[in-house]
Queue: 2 jobs
Job 1
Amino acid sequence: MLVPELPAEIRELKAKVRQFLEDEVYPLELRIAQRGSIDVAEVDVMRKKARAAGFAMLNMPPDQGGIGLSMVGQVALEEESGKATNGLGFAVVDRGPRELLEITTPDQAKRYVAPIVRGEYREAWALTEPGAGSDLAGLQATATRAGDDWLLNGEKWFVTSEGSPGVYIVAAMHEGEQLLFLVDPDSPGLEIVRTPSFLHDPYLDHHPEIVFTDCRVPEANRIPATGDAGAKEWILVERLFIAARCCGAAERLLDLATDWAKEREQFGAPIAEYQGISFPLADSLTELLAARLLTYHAAHAFDTLADRKIVHGKVSMAKLFASEMAGRVADRALQAFGGRGYMLENPTARFYRELRVDRIWEGTSEIQRLVIARGLLKRGAAPYLGWE
Ligand SMILES: Cc1cc2nc3c(=O)[nH]c(=O)nc-3n(C[C@H](O)[C@H](O)[C@H](O)COP(=O)(O)OP(=O)(O)OC[C@H]3O[C@@H](n4cnc5c(N)ncnc54)[C@H](O)[C@@H]3O)c2cc1C
């Protein structure tokens, strides 16, 4: 099966998330646009309502407060969350730290994963460094043994976190191997040195730069999986979710632009009657459907395919195509709105800025092409195209 049907219960849940966005999130977005900043307390109220509505932690196994939702199901919900701007979708469909659970010891899971599931705090992954972005093999941060503890030294950039995270997952080198550590934010030697502004601000997440100077971490906080394998699954899932959110964003953009094109009249006719407006919208719908099929196809492969290398290739294709598609759709939608599309109170203007990062984070478009090309050259096209 190339693309599965969505089960009725997932369709129902998806419709509920969509309704929640319309009732709770879109009015909140507008207030943020008018104020120019995010009111954290207001977002917290919205997040609690979303949690009460049952949208959080669904990917976690039942004994961890979730329902073990399939990747196809998760993608369906993530798609809806992508319709929100300002990163608010992250607070609506609050996905649990499943990949962290899978690589931590039972004791670590109890201390660090359980509080996230209970909604007490979030985790933040600190992999990227000033000198190592696309090429994470070039990490410079070090972990040195000091009795029963480890000392971390180095600098991490773009550490995405909403407010103050409860735990950092930090990658550092030890004797040529990447290790991962669970680091408490108040550990001596951990310092947030800068919180730069980004093109998508005001945004729910911040992306500070953190310096570690002889930051002491107990051996009990070293994750058993080594860095590369440990972080790989997290990166894979994040890539798929970026693709899903891009599809959701593009759908909202297309709906907004289509409605506007039918309503706005110039030269005595709705602008939708001019092919200069309707053809780009037709291109957007076509590309959105293609991206959507590819994203659900990759999610289905994630759920069913044993060969993870093929799954990685398909997820990279989905992330590459969907993020580039969303950029084009936003650009065309903005053009259809004319000057009104350039006003930040219009979601189109906000998406135009915010979607740009989807071609960068969790591996740039070039890195996705690298993954796809390597797979193609090694295995040929057939395993990536086949029916499973
Ligand atoms: C808003 C934001 C949030 C982020 N959140 C996190 C986070 O939570 N945790 C974390 O660890 N990281 C995070 N990142 C980091 C992100 O994953 C990196 O920015 C990304 O992987 C690219 O690395 P870089 O910025 O160092 O660019 P570089 O690696 O320096 O790349 C610069 C340019 O060179 C190109 N390039 C590099 N190598 C090749 C190649 N072999 N072939 C062709 N082109 C190439 C790239 O595609 C890019 O266009 C975040 C980044 C941003 C912007």
Job 2
Amino acid sequence: MAIQEHKKLGQYLTPAAYAKCISKEAMRAIANSSEVIHVLDPGTGNGQLIYYLLDSLNTQGRLKPSQKLDIVICDIDGGELIHAVTRLHNWLVVHKMRERVCISSFQLDFIKSFPINGWTEKFDLIVMNPPYRRLSNSDESKLYLNNFNMASDNLYSEFLDVGRKYLKKKGFLISLTPRSFLNGVYFTKFRIRFFKEMAIRRIYLFSSRKIFESALQEVTLMVACKDNHWEPVSVVQLRSIEDPIKENETIISPKLIVDKNDFSFLLAKRRPQECKNEIQLGKIKDIEMHTGKVVQFRDLTEDAILIQKTGERDIPFILPEHLDERGKIDWPKIYPKKGNYIRKDAIRESKLIYGQMFLVISRFSTVEQHRRIKAAIFLNPNPKEPIAFDNKLNVIEFHNKSFFYAKKLLNQLLSKETDVFIRGLSGSTQININDLRKVLVQNF
Ligand SMILES: C[S@@+](CC[C@H](N)C(=O)[O-])C[C@H]1O[C@@H](n2cnc3c(N)ncnc32)[C@H](O)[C@@H]1O
């Protein structure tokens, strides 16, 4: 199959070390299961997850003599499925396990064949490394699941959602996916649906983006139980499975990690209420947070942006290029890429902001950047006149706060602690305003 086709189907196979980690978690999950254990692996690919599960169960003697496995594998790609079936049947023959393990395979679209007769609430265990693909509103998978009020913005979250339906009560779902579903507005409806029924028991957060050979992605391995009772959650933070640095595991009360308003997760090292004198940025009185109001392509014509002031009415226009690496504003720049000012007449009044002092934070960061947050204080040289901020910035406005206060806040945002916090909060390189509101700072 052509590389393009592999990409389209999201065929990024699970590296062996991660498949072994999933099988370790799966063995724990089914330790107390009954005589016949029903297992499902949707988007089986070449059978990697089931192969390692069988191998671990066998080498560690974890399958009780009375227990049998009933395994269902399925994939949209018939070629991959044949590969998986051959590989798994060979394993059964070599290890003389044909009597105890039954494998059924189905070539199907896991999303568009929902609901499958007899699969609802059938499985004790579902393991998956689903395909990832952003879904537009016209995508067939999204339109199809809309009929069941289960549409979401990515194919992987739709796999998780359908998996939830096929899981028995108290059954376990173990998944390797991007971590974007844990946070952010796009996945809010999915999270509310999913976590009403599912509780995370353990979650691995990998900070390396190079888990898959040919895709850059921050991923998470989630062990979730179909149970609406949340127990303390084990959070394991590590760079990658291969990383020799010992993993960092913390057991955290669900109250501290799940924001019940939108079911977003605070999986950072420091959490609200852990330190008495800390407060979430968004809860500080007398500050206002928003994104910059000027979307260049929509709100401006090219000649509205100026390098030098040309007239009395030109006002400062602050862009990410005006933030330097040391937390300082470099404005006006001698050789800006875009410009330093804007013609006031070229922009609607609603896009302008009045005030004296602002803390600006870039909404985008690069993987190479030392710290995710790049920020600085901007002082309006003429507070009677408004200024304009580019939409690629987050802006904090201060009311009745001193420069000293703003400077202390800036130093905290640029600190290592905040960097660790924000990386724990979101796997994305974007600093979105809702995540920023959750950042903990000293309440001085
Ligand atoms: C990320 S790969 C994972 C393969 C394997 N489970 C592993 O862990 O190595 C995702 C698999 O899902 C399959 N797939 C993609 N879209 C699918 C769909 N709508 N229904 C079923 N399988 C699908 C792909 O063919 C691919 O084999």
